Amino acid sequence: MKPFQKLDGLVAPMDRANVDTDAIIPKQFLKSIKRSGFGPNLFDEWRYKDVGQPGQDASGRPLNPDFVLNQPRYQGAQILLTRDNFGCGSSREHAPWALEDFGFRVLIGPSFADIFFNNCFKNGLLPIRLPGSEVDELFSQCHESAGYTLSVDLQAQTITRPDGKVIPFDVDPFRRECLLNGWDDIGLTLRHADKIRAFEERRRMDQPWLFA
Amino acid sequence: MQAQTLYEKLWSSHVVHVEEDGTALIYIDRHLVHEVTSPQAFEGLKLAGRKPWRVNSIVATADHNTPTDHWERGIEDPVSRQQVETLDANIREVGALAYFPFKDQRQGIVHVIGPENGATLPGMTVVCGDSHTSTHGAFACLAHGIGTSEVEHVMATQCLLQKKSKTMLIRVEGELGAGVTAKDVVLAIIGKIGTAGGTGYAMEFGGSAIRSLSMEGRMTICNMAIEAGARAGLVAVDEQTVEYLKDRPFSPSGEQWDKAVAYWKTLHSDEGARFDRVVDLNAAEIQPQVTWGTSPEMVAPVDGHVPDPSLETDPVKREGMERALQYMGLEPRTPIKDILVDKVFIGSCTNSRIEDLRAAAAVARGRRKADSVKAVLVVPGSGVVKRQAEAEGLDQIFLAAGFEWREPGCSMCLAMNADRLEPGERCASTSNRNFEGRQGAGGRTHLVSPAMAAAAAVTGRFADVRALG
Lengths: 212, 469
Description:
The complex is a heterodimer. By secondary structure, chain A is an alpha/beta fold. Chain A has helices at 21-24, 44-47, 94-102, 114-121, 132-144, 173-181, 185-190, 193-206, and strands spanning 6-13, 79-81, 106-109, 126-129, 149-153, 158-160, 166-168. The radius of gyration of chain A is 19 Å and the shape is globular. By secondary structure, chain B is of the alpha/beta class. In chain B, 32% of the residues lie in helices and 17% in strands. Chain B has helices spanning 6-12, 39-47, 78-94, 110-116, 148-157, 182-193, 208-211, 215-223, 239-245, 254-264, 315-328, 354-364, 383-391, 394-400, 450-459, 465-468; strands at residues 15-18, 24-27, 30-33, 58-61, 98-100, 125-128, 142-145, 159-162, 166-173, 201-206, 232-234, 277-282, 289-291, 299-301, 343-346, 375-378, 404-405, 426-429, 444-447. The interface between A and B is large, with 59 and 81 residues.
């Protein structure tokens, strides 16, 4: 996994609540057996005027000029502002894969759906939960000034606004360590292989029907 | 000992290791696998030179991409076919306790075949790369949907990294009215607490109305816990749970059965156990429900109206409602009963079990699909459900009513196969998500119970199933 430490990045606003993973990456692209290449189909139904197909070259497709990520001022954005319950719905990890492939590294919103939130950390994406009032201010600042950037420091657990205000944020220490170092979960877990084996043996004795 | 919730009992019996910040390694008993979220996990495993930790924990099936008609033609879409063939090859190489491939007699939706084969048992931890894994909580399992990285993690380590959830009890007391089903109960719950109401919680469903539901009904409720934001739904074990599991292919037998049942009966929240949040609903007040928007919380009783966004004071919510009504092609204050439907879908991991098909058939019996309705798809949840329904003559009732009787699979719940809505088409659907484009780009989904879906099929609009007689 790509480590994440610090980022000064352009911010784009996704100003709607309950953005679901079907919207983030529609079902037809889930037929891929690969982990990469989903960026061109991020928010496919909102971003393009036609219906996209897997394997199609997206470069000639008609863009929806009203969609926020198609606006010139947000080209190259790496930080996405979101509203409540972003990433709800399906568990598809294709959603964080598509966000990451498109170029996002940080998501900032008042709340995220559980499975999506978890999936982000496995892919070098940092979802940050902030109080609603802080998110509201970021949205209005971002709307008001073109080229709006934020500085995100995972080590220090802070977001710094262009006006100098520093916003602290919470993150689980374990997830923070993994993300800072780009550690592979599986490798970490396998350090406890003996404990897993011992647990499993006890379970096999107590509830043998689970091991039929 | 301190009174424990069911969630706490399940959690504490699976903890292998705890990190300093409370992140725990949880042992996984059952790993359900399907073709969409597993190929990258198998590939990752292979690239790292790792083997699955315990192959016998895996039960696999192909369900999302499989067609529901003309099985003799195979899977015509080459991209879908490749994904299903990739699962075939991976299971051939790695192995599994059971695999129900495309065209197998017991193939079906992963959340239908787990319980019906006794592969889902009380007290288990169950995971699957699918958010509707919460379904299995109906059997007092700790069942989570997971992402593909976690699928790989579980294959490699038999464990999942988890933080302990908060606990919520949804208590539904009283008697449900005639024509009001589990689907209406869960839609009413989501309408009350919202689609993020359960975020961060494990959600236990209790109260006399839940206890009175069949296992099928409890599965419908737990299935949609995720639509209320909760990764896991739970119902305590009772006699019905035990009765359901008896003599299933992977259920224990003989002495093991007795031992298992004795343990299963401890799987309930203790008297006096403390929940972080309790929500009460009165069963008698719940009406048949119909969603009107693009999120399951946008729901109204069948007697109600499409709401008026101008009355909403929260600007983000108001814009969400306006956007939803625009997408759905609906005007504020329209009576729900005035909304006409183009298609009807009866199926999905929420509502494709035998009881669901019986409920739909009871409405369809002796009636005909309205002429204005283009198609009514009835898609059983599994081959086992399909044959049971045919043995009871339900297929003949559907066919006589002008409905289509299909082969099992996920079908038009998410439209990964050929079953889908065309842009602008409006569907009465027994599935779980009314998101934009969910059933096909531009399609408009209204979530309802199987009986309400059949009522919409025969009247051409949302009708109160209680008034049909």
